[in-house]
Amino acid sequence: MARAQIISAAKVIDNVGCMQHCLTLEQRIIDLGHPLRQLHIDPLSTDWHSPEQPDHFRSGCGPIEALARAQQLIQEGTPAVVICGEDNIKTGYARHQRLELMEIYGQQQPITEAYNALALRFLQLHQIDESHFRQLAHALFDNYCLSYRNVLSDEFSEELLPDARWHQPLTSLFRGVDCANPLVDFQGRLLIVSDQLADQLACPIEQRLDIRAVGLSRLQQDGPEGLEQIARYDHLEAAYQDCCREAKVDFADEFKAGQGLLEAYTCYPVVPMAFLLASGLVDVLEQIPAFLQRHSITVTGGMNLAKAAWNNPALNALISMHHCLLNGDERYGMVHGNGGLGYRQGVALLAKVDR
């Protein structure tokens, strides 16, 4: 069976970046006579409640679902697949249009309030109070900041961090800095081919990544109606376990041993908290601050600082993870996707190719 390998990953954010490496390889594949299947991440302008079209993916879990589909296509004999995402959130919409399109649960239930209700139920289930929850949220944001500084390195400036107004509460549990910031223009491409085609293209082993496994889980209901089941995050644990089982890798052990990188989905603090528990990286919420002192849970700085493009954050994370793994010493990279209020969960494990 063919192995699905990522051979190029490129993005442009607010006109910074270059797609040429990916586009050049795509043209070479076409010139060799191979079909190139395209999978699309839907933009904000796509009606959230409309039926999903073939080869189109939606929600924060959409890019992970697209990756699973790409892996399946490669294993079934498709030689090459490209996952494409483009959404000009900053410049492509008037403010009122953007706000209206983001009201996916109706005007009476903003996403911030829906997540606040979810978090309230989550902390009840785990028997912690609101003050403790806010302390954990602060620790998470500090962790994102450290990663963000490391990503930017010499280009980092304190002016790039959110100003004081973003540290004010938006809800009873969340500050502005705790929430995803979608105001960015984004284009991204992820090129996935069979290992045979990668050989034909003479792509060096050190420039490839294996898609080792993808775990997916979806509940029947999203939004406030599905809150009770979402808050338990059993489906997230199932997606994570399925991914590790398929890959035959205990990612938690590899990560703690310094052999793994992680991009948790950080739209609101309850989501990465749930991931840390579901993955076994921590056993109880009280362990999170000490864990965050030792480990970065994003490679980008999270959606809060690296910003997000509606349905594209996990695609941005996959692209960033590709480059981090190729340029670093770690062997594995895991990317988490969270769709809607959390009814869709996806976990992808990438790995360096054995030489």
Automatic annotation (TrEMBL):
GO terms for molecular function: acyltransferase activity. It comes from the Bacteria. This is Thiolase family protein.
